Amino acid sequence: MENLVNRVIGQVSKVVLGKPTEVKLAVTCILANGHILIEDLPGMGKTTLAQVLAKAMGLSFQRTQFTSDMLPADVTGITIYDQETKTFVLHKGPIFSQLILADEINRASPKTQSALLEAMEEHQVSIDGETYRLPDPFFVIATQNPLFHAGTNPLPESQLDRFMMRLSLGFPDVEAEKEILVAQELYDKVQQVDTVLTTEQLQAIQQQVMDIHVSDEVLEYIIALCRVTRNSEFTGNPLSPRAGKAILKASKAWALVHERNYVIPEDVQSVFNAVAEHRIDAGVSQFEKNRHNLSAQILEQVDVLAPLS
Fold first, then answer.
1. Which phi and psi (to 5°) does residue 103 adopt?
2. Per the confidence metrics, is the pTM higher than 0.90?
3. pLDDT of residue 158
4. Which fold has domain 212-309?
5. N or C: which terminus of the chain has fewer CB atoms within 10 Å of its end residue's CB?
6. CATH architecture of residue range(s) 1-196
């Protein structure tokens, strides 16, 4: 299975150039059965990353462009009365796909953003009093523009907490940008990506992630990191037990990506920023330079494998 994971990373990296860590984190999040929020400037490859992940992992894919006039039914779907059968028929929205790309999610109203809450947490949607299960597996990859851009609405804390990771691709290095400039059209490159996994194989790998061993010492390390944010002196939002669980699941997946069947503290440290920063610094853009990286400060304050007091 590890070979399949490496092949997925290789296929994604053929299109998303010069971003090995970000690609590995994105794959890690999917293997941990988590949702991804990608915040970056326009034209940085956010949409491309989502498309290539879906293609390489063999997932059905729908892209929805979020706008200010969008309604919740545009995401979930709507029931329409059929004159012939005298019944209401569900017209499914784009959310009934294994991977949905919510493009520029923070341009939609909070009401429309909230249409994703039930889907992301419970993998189901409620339409006109009826509950419908979503495909399995189900993932949301949302992109958002920086909050200082015109026409954006900050995501509420409850929405941010549904995303296991927040990533930012950033500018490529010189060599990668050269390759991007002379490369063929992006659409053609995406179409050439090989599908590596079947749905069954992806689910088997996700089960492997669940079975990764975690020692009591590593569990206590994760708890210690969370407890730092619950002190009265801490300036950010406290990390909830659900956030701690997200850190644990991401750490397990990161260990599997690196071909280990157990978690070490370095796995926790590698995923901590992507999993924790948008929770403890909710509403603050990654592009705002007047705030320090709180997750890095937390890691510095906690001794690795020190006993809990």
1. -80, 130
2. no
3. 81
4. Helicase, Ruva Protein; domain 3 (1.10.8)
5. C
6. 3-Layer(aba) Sandwich (3.40)
